[in-house]
Write a structure and sequence with these properties.
Layout lengths: L5 E7 L2 E9 L39 E6 L2 E5 L1 H7 L6 E9 L8 E9 L4 H14 L1 E9 L2 E10 L2 E7 L23 H13 L12 H14 L19 H14 L3 H11 L1
Parallel strand pairs: 1-5
Antiparallel strand pairs: 1-2, 2-6, 3-4, 5-7, 6-9, 7-8, 8-9
Length: about 270
């Protein structure tokens, strides 16, 4: 059973809706410890001075911001604490916008907002109004001494909150190198085939069909080794650099896509059969 990681209230005009914040994502990652090869003992990392190699105790470590090579401005924990955003238990809604106006680049981490005791009526009111209007709320809140910009939107019978990057954290496309010029246009035949290929691969989004295959393979490897099985590593296949014939690649891809029914097509066939 998930546990709330924060509690507070959504400020909606003059209405305060007490809520609890739950993580919407259970991250699955495989972590390894560093061990000494000959006896398997754990490796501990020490903090050492880059000049003399001596280990530095925690109480002698301060924060420094590099302003030029090997020149630092020292900032104390108290100074940073004085600048931290004012502790608050409110999620302040500032605007309501169309979800389609928010580029997915801005989204960071997702949570659920659940009504606290006695807040079900007000929570349902906001949820229903947002669902009816189709709007997404843009709000600010403070979590663990850090201010977050966030987007709140309905998902089924719950409100979700996604933390967002601020605009100055997003790298502009104009800063990228080697992008094609605006005037560059593909050949009409190639474009038609590319569009046809996209159409043939179009299907409804079914998130459960996309699995983390690498993680599954690593877990299978770990389980096999834990059971004492001998594992033989597969040799790497070096394909080398290949010159791509764009038309040939499009034709081959289109041919393969036609042979493989998409989820959308199979769904239509099932519907007709019923």
């Amino acid at each position: 059973m998930p546990r709330p990681i924060w509690s507070g209230a959504i400020s909606f005009g003059l209405v305060n809706i007490p809520i609890k914040l739950y993580s919407a994502v259970k991250k699955k990652s495989i972590s390894f410890h560093q061990l000494r090869r000959n006896d398997g003992c754990r490796i501990r990392l020490k903090k050492v001075c880059s000049t003399d190699g001596e280990e530095v105790e925690k109480e002698n470590i301060v924060k420094g911001y590099e302003v030029s090579p090997d020149r630092y401005v020292i900032v104390s924990s108290d100074e940073l604490q004085s600048l931290s955003p004012k502790a608050s238990r409110n999620i302040e809604i500032e605007d309501f916008v169309e979800l389609s106006q928010i580029d997915p680049l801005y989204f960071e981490q997702s949570f659920y907002l659940v009504p606290d005791k006695g807040a079900a009526k007000a929570y349902t009111l906001l949820l229903t109004a947002m669902r009816t209007s189709g709007k997404t709320a843009i709000a600010r809140f403070v979590l663990r001494n850090k201010e977050y910009l966030s987007a709140i939107r309905p998902i089924n019978n719950a409100l979700s909150l996604s933390t967002m990057h601020f605009t100055d954290e997003i790298i502009a496309v104009a800063e990228l190198e080697s992008l094609p010029e605006d005037t560059a246009e593909p050949a009409k035949r190639e474009l038609a085939m590319a569009e046809q290929l996209i159409q043939s691969l179009t299907a409804d989004f079914e998130p459960e069909k996309y699995r983390n295959e690498y993680q599954e393979k690593v877990m299978n490897l770990i389980e096999s080794k834990a059971e004492g099985q001998e594992i033989v590593a597969k040799p790497e296949v070096n394909e080398g650099g290949r010159v791509i014939d764009l038309m040939a690649a499009l034709e081959a891809s289109l041919s393969a896509a036609k042979k493989k029914p998409t989820a959308a097509k199979s769904g239509r066939k099932k519907a007709r059969a019923q």
